[in-house]
Specification:
By secondary structure, this protein is of the alpha/beta class. The chain has a single domain (11-231), classed as Rossmann fold. The chain contains 8 helices and 10 strands. Strands 6-7-8-3-9-10 form a 6-stranded mixed sheet, sandwiched between helices. Strands 2-1-4-5 form a 4-stranded antiparallel sheet, with helices on one face. A hairpin with a 2-residue loop joins strand 4 and strand 5 (78-79). Helix 6 runs parallel beside helix 7 (184-201). The radius of gyration is 18 Å and the shape is globular. The structure holds adenosine-5'-triphosphate. Adenosine-5'-triphosphate binds next to helix 1.
C-alpha cells in the first residue's frame, strides 16, 4: 500500500476562503461571472471596483445571504450554502467576523457590552466573554472606561466594532467600507489596527473600499470589473499578486 492518508486532506490548512466559478445574475445582467478568489490565513486583500461592480453581491454570497447561479464557496474547508439553515448560521458564527461602515454599535451600552453580543449568541458565559472583550480591547490599544459607546469618537467606535467582530476568533474578517465615515487621522488609526490583525491572529481580511489610500494598505488589491477579479499593481510598482 503506498497510499498516503495525508494526501487526501481536503485543503491546504492556510486557505481560509476559496471561491470557485462563482456566477450571479440578476435578470439579463451577469454581475459575477465565474469568479475565483482564494484568501490565505494571515493575508489582507482589498476589494475595489466601481459602484455597481458587484462587491456587495460577492460579500452577500460569501456570507450565505444570496444564492449563486453557479460555483462554490468554501470557508475553512466547509461548503457555504445560501439560506437560513442552521449550518449556514453556524459557519458564519464560527468562522466569520464582520465590520461595517457605521459600526452598528448599540449607543447606550458600554463598549464591552457591545463587544460581547456575538459571544453571548454563541453561548459563551457572560463573565468569560467580558474577560475576552477586555483582552481584545487591550490588544487593539484601546483603553475604554465603562461609559456609553455613544460618547466615544468615530475612530474609537470603529475599533470597538473591530473588537466585536473578533470576539468569536473568526478566521475570516470581512470589512465593508470600515473607514468610510472617518476623517483621515481616524481612518489611518483604524487601518493600522486592521492590517496588523492577520499577523497577530492568523486570520484573513477581505476589505471592501472605495478609498485608494485604504486599499494601498492591503497586501494585495483585487479589482472587480465585468464580473471578474484581477490583481492590480501597488503604487510601489509591485504586483499585488493573486
Ligand atoms: N437583488 C437584486 N436584484 C437586482 N439587481 C441587483 C440586486 N442586487 C444588486 N443588484 C444589481 O447588481 C449590481 C451590483 O450591485 P452591488 O451592490 O453588488 O455593487 P457594488 O459594487 O457593491 O456597488 P457600490 O460600490 O455602489 O456599493 C448593481 O447593478 C445592482 O443594481
Amino acid at each position: 500500500m503506498d497510499a498516503n492518508p495525508s494526501a487526501t486532506a481536503s485543503r491546504p490548512a492556510n486557505e481560509v476562503l476559496v471561491v470557485q466559478g462563482l456566477t450571479v445574475s440578476f435578470g439579463e445582467r451577469t454581475v459575477l461571472d465565474a469568479l475565483d478568489l482564494t484568501l490565505q490565513a494571515g493575508s489582507t486583500t482589498a476589494l475595489i471596483g466601481p459602484s455597481g461592480a458587484g462587491k456587495s453581491t460577492l460579500l452577500s454570497a460569501i456570507l450565505g445571504l444570496l444564492r449563486a447561479d453557479a460555483g462554490s464557496i468554501t470557508i475553512c474547508g466547509e461548503a457555504m450554502q445560501a439560506g437560513n439553515s442552521a449550518a449556514t448560521a453556524r459557519i458564519r458564527r464560527e468562522h466569520i467576523g464582520m465590520v461595517f461602515q457605521d459600526g452598528y454599535l448599540i449607543d447606550e451600552l458600554t463598549p464591552v457590552k457591545n463587544i460581547i453580543v456575538p459571544a453571548l449568541v454563541a453561548g459563551v458565559p457572560a463573565a468569560d466573554a467580558e474577560e475576552r472583550a477586555r483582552a481584545i480591547l487591550a490588544e487593539l490599544g484601546l483603553t475604554v472606561q465603562e461609559r456609553a459607546t455613544s460618547s466615544f469618537s468615530g475612530g474609537e467606535r470603529q475599533r470597538i466594532a473591530i473588537a466585536r467582530a473578533l470576539i468569536n476568533s473568526p478566521q475570516l474578517l470581512i470589512a465593508d467600507e470600515p473607514t468610510g465615515s472617518l476623517d483621515p487621522a481616524n481612518r489611518d488609526r483604524v487601518m493600522d489596527t486592521l492590517v496588523a490583525l492577520p499577523q497577530q491572529l492568523g486570520c484573513a481580511i477581505l476589505l471592501v473600499t472605495h478609498d485608494p489610500m485604504v486599499a494601498q494598505r492591503a497586501g494585495r488589491i483585487m479589482a472587480l470589473t465585468d464580473g471578474k477579479l484581477a490583481a492590480t499593481v501597488h503604487q510601489s510598482g509591485q504586483a499585488a499578486g493573486r
